[in-house]
Amino acid sequence: MRLSVYDRAGLFLERVRPILEQEEAINNLMLGLLTNYSENPAVYDTTPYMVVVEDGATPFLIAFKTPRARLILYSGLETIPPDECFELVAADLANCPLEMPGVLGPAALVNRFTPHWLALKGGSALPGMHEGIYALTEVIPPRPAPGKFRAAQPEDAELLARWVVAFQDEALGITSAFEDTLSQVQRRIEAGNLFVWEDETGRVVTMAGRSRPTRHGATVNAVYTPPELRGKAYASNCVAALSQFILDSGKNFATLFTDLSNPTSNYIYMKIGYKHLGDYIEINFEP
């Protein structure tokens, strides 16, 4: 068994893309991040962690990690890779200077990797979010809501930045600095990747983002409606319109991640055509 470490995104993508694209929608996170990095190397100030564990020409385990995020794991094998694969990645990553907040991926892989990491680094492993991966190829129109879908404009930036801060606190338990968030929102608006639903008076009532394009799909994320405006079908209509926008742009499918502990959002997405493909679990590491 051999561990191959890559420091050039193009070479890594060339190696792993054929495997990841066998389940392109399921692998939208790794593929989307890696594609973006290969096209925009300056997006990270430190080289991401990019590794393949292989036996001869057969890849057994793929590991990818951006500088401050969780490690993402994937295997195209029909069975769980041997423990040696996880040992090799854990040992190599233990000597890497990158911050290691946790691991993300299919439960079978995450649960095999975690004890090897703890054996080397100590600390504790805390369960994070249990996420569902959904994909849509045809939109089912939701119950109509008054108003219209449109691309976010520069004048929307401050409102949407406040919403992103609220979304990250509510959904992810993350406290974000407003000024940093505002800069990110402004960049997404400039790139044409943030959208809103405005009601019949022109008031913005819901937002949704487009992210991580792959060769045949793109991801919907950052879906947020303020609590006082929920239950009016704004989010359903915004996500449905954005999903159709993605399909109309030439993509074959749209994807999204959901928190499986929130049955309401899962139900909403399935009603407009999203189908459950698989699950990811998060494990967070603490000293």
Characterize the overall form.
globular
- SSE arrangement, N to C: EHHEEEHEHEEHHEEEHEHE
| Secondary structural class | alpha+beta
**What is the CATH level 1 assignment of the largest domain?**
Alpha Beta
Architecture of the largest domain, according to CATH? 3-Layer(aba) Sandwich
Number of domains: 2
Percentage of residues in helical conformation? 25-40%
Report the span from N to C terminus: 30 Å
Largest sheet: 12 strands, mixed
Polypeptide structure, described:
This protein is α+β, with helices and mostly antiparallel strands and 287 residues long. It folds into two domains: 121 residues; 143 residues, Aminopeptidase (3-Layer(aba) Sandwich), CATH 3.40.630.30. It is built from eight helices and twelve strands. Helix 1 runs antiparallel to helix 2. The longest helix is centred in the middle third of the chain and has 16 residues. The mean pLDDT is 96.
Q: What's the quick description here?
A:
With about 290 residues, the chain is an alpha+beta fold.
